[in-house]
Every structure is written in C-alpha cells, then in structure tokens.
Write a structure and sequence with these properties.
It is elongated and about 50 Å long. The longest helix has 18 residues. The chain has three helices and no strands. It is mostly helical.
C-alpha cells in the first residue's frame, strides 16, 4: 500500500478518535516515562556488548588448493 495512502488513513483515524473523545493524550509524566523506556530498550544491546565484549573473529585460513 502506498505510504501516503497509509498516512492519510491513519490521520483520519486520529482525527476521528480525538473528535469522539476516545483518543489517548499523554501527560508530561507518561511521555517522560515512555521516552526513558525507549532509550533503555534501544541501548540494551550496547550495554550488553560493553559488559561482555565479543572476541574479534579470526580470519579464515586460505585454501591450500588455490595456491
């Protein structure tokens, strides 16, 4: 589906939810907590790599038949 069409459909849904009064609006505290959780999730792999560094892969040995 075309990205602009998807965007238009989503925009209409958001406007309808707001006009019906059923849309969720984040408070500052909720937004802050969501941002904190997102930052933790995004950087989890980096923190794991720092805590447990991987050994660099060795270079493969050349096949002797090619020489």
């Amino acid at each position: 589906m075309d990205r602009t069409l998807v965007s238009d459909i989503a925009r209409k849904g958001g406007k309808a939810a707001h006009s019906a009064g059923t849309a969720h609006e984040f408070t500052s505290d909720e937004a802050r907590e969501a941002g904190r959780k997102g930052g933790l999730a995004v950087h989890a792999k980096r923190r794991k790599a720092v805590a447990d560094p991987q050994v660099a892969p060795t270079t493969p040995v050349a096949d002797e038949r090619l020489h």
